[in-house]
Amino acid sequence: MAALLLPLTILSLVTAGIVAVHNVSISLLDSAVARGAVCLDGTPPAYAYSPGFGDGVDNWHVFLQGGGWCHNVDNCLDRTRDPKGSSAKLMTEQNGVVSFGGMLDANSTLNPDFYNWHVFKIFYCDGSSLMSDVEDVDPKHNLTYRGARIYDAMMDELLRIGMGNAKNALLSGTSAGGLATTLHCDKFQSLFHNTTKVKCVSDSGFFVHGEHFMGADWREAYFFSVISTHGLTNMLPTSCTSKFSSTLCLFPENLVPDIQTPLFLIESAFDKYQISNNVFSPSDASPRWINCTSNLIFCNWSEIKIMKDTHS
Ligand SMILES: *[C@@H]1O[C@H](CO)[C@@H](O)[C@H](O)[C@H]1NC(C)=O
Ligand SMILES: *[C@@H]1O[C@H](CO)[C@@H](O)[C@H](O)[C@H]1NC(C)=O
Ligand SMILES: *[C@@H]1O[C@H](CO)[C@@H](O)[C@H](O)[C@H]1NC(C)=O
Ligand SMILES: *[C@@H]1O[C@H](CO)[C@@H](O)[C@H](O)[C@H]1NC(C)=O
Ligand SMILES: *[C@@H]1O[C@H](CO)[C@@H](O)[C@H](O)[C@H]1NC(C)=O
Ligand SMILES: *[C@@H]1O[C@H](CO)[C@@H](O)[C@H](O)[C@H]1NC(C)=O
Q1: Which end of the chain has less neighbouring CB within 10 Å, N or C?
Q2: Residue 12 pLDDT > 50, yes or no?
Q3: 95 CA from centroid of ligand 1 (Å)
Q4: For every residue of 189-252, which 3-state class applies, written as one string?
Q5: Does 116 share its domain with 259?
Q6: For the domain that residue 78 is a member of, what is the CATH number?
Q7: Do 188 and 295 lie in a common domain?
């Protein structure tokens, strides 16, 4: 299992810098609206699908887009004004088209392992890593918290178009989509017969609690706000919540030990988001530190040492 991690890491690094992508049109899953599976602003959820070909026709790659979380009403309301909370905004901003690169690329030179797989990208518009399911629409702000329903509606669509017969199925995601991958991995596997090989890849989604980091309390308080905003207390895996508080159950370190499906973690020791948000809490960070985490040229040796020590 560990053997796959390295090639994937190299693959994503190699392909990240190369711009050779193909455009795929974005679709709205209108059928999801009737079951209340909608974005924060009530618009239908969106996906982009590129069918598999050649000897990839039996293989499916489902990719979960990332993009942080919203942790209070104002913050979620802000999202309704951009693609992270509204598929209407997504369509306008993207002109109805998305480029598939990296592990989603259809070019066999750039993406030799997955280029001819079915690729289904789920756009992120719920702000909860696809975990929320609140029945009532917030009447004052007209906000709808339904990420888990979006996930379920998308899975039904995938089964409808043939994913159930897959020989290989991969669920992957980056950042908040990487956390969503970890949270949904076993549920994803349960969609298939036991003859399907199912695996998950969480890329840059291993948000560490790191008790010795100055940012640990901040991060914990932040996840607590995400959970209360989206009503996630009872939505997180019980295998975790039976042992830890719900806040700690958004940290992958407390989720991963119970996951039954092969799960591959890609996490840079120099993940910019984590270094700038966890090592120091953003509220304490000096302008100097903010400069340094944005560009290494601005760092002195003691700051470089802090970064090197962070994930060791
Ligand atoms: C892909 O879409 C972008 C933006 O919509 C456009 O600029 C670009 O020319 C398209 N590329 C191809 C190969 O069609
Ligand atoms: C709330 O959102 C729905 C769905 O987008 C929309 O039809 C309705 O007009 C909105 N109501 C208010 C009060 O903004
Ligand atoms: C695939 O990528 C390689 C390397 O960038 C490039 O030379 C080749 O033209 C690409 N193939 C297609 C079909 O775009
Ligand atoms: C797969 O499931 C079938 C019954 O549905 C069972 O007979 C078989 O032993 C299972 N195979 C594996 C490898 O678990
Ligand atoms: C941060 O960087 C900018 C240039 O990008 C510079 O003008 C500013 O003085 C720097 N601030 C600190 C505190 O180093
Ligand atoms: C490096 O910068 C930090 C501020 O981020 C400062 O506290 C420290 O003294 C500096 N170290 C050196 C060796 O200049």
Answers
A1: C
A2: no
A3: 10
A4: HCCCCCCCEEEEEEECCCCCCCCCCCCHHHHHHHHHHHHHHHCCCCCCCHHHHCCCCCHHHHCH
A5: yes
A6: 3.40.50
A7: no
- Work out which ligand 1 atom sits closest to the CA atom of 97: 5
Total domains present in the chain: 2
**pLDDT per residue over 140-175, tens digit each?**
999 999 999 999 999 999 999 999 999 999 999 999
List C-alpha distances in Å: 127 to 113, 148, 226, 230, 244: 31, 11, 9, 8, 23
Looking at every residue in the chain, the average pLDDT score rounds to: 90
Same domain assignment for residues 10 and 50: yes
Q: Which residues of 294-303 are buried (b: 16+ CB within 10 A; e: fewer)?
A: eeeeebeeeb
List, for residues 102-142, the tens digit of each pLDDT value: 999 999 999 999 999 999 999 999 999 999 999 999 999 99
CA proximity to 76, closest of 231, 276, 283, 249: 231
Give 85 Cα–ligand 6 centroid separation in angstroms: 40
Tokens of 134: 């609140």
Q: Both 311 and 231 in a single domain? A: no
Compute CA distances 11 → 18, 95, 185, whole Å.
11, 29, 22
Which atom of ligand 2 is closest in space to residue 144's alpha carbon?
Answer: 2
Please tell me the predicted confidence (pLDDT) of residue 291.
86
Encoding tokens for residue 308? Answer: 């090197």
pTM, two decimal places:
0.88
Beta carbon of 260 within 6 Å of any ligand 3 atom: no
Same domain, 10 and 127: yes
The structure tokens 């750039």 sit at 110
Q: How large is the average pLDDT for residues 74-94?
A: 98
16-30, 86-100, 202-216, 294-308, range with the lowest pLDDT = 16-30
Starting at the edge strand found earlier in the chain, the sheet holding 59-64 runs 97-100, 22-28, 46-50, 118-122, 59-64, 168-174, 197-203, 263-266
Expressed as residue numbers, the domain containing 172 is 2-267
C-alpha of residue 109 to centroid of ligand 3, in Å: 6
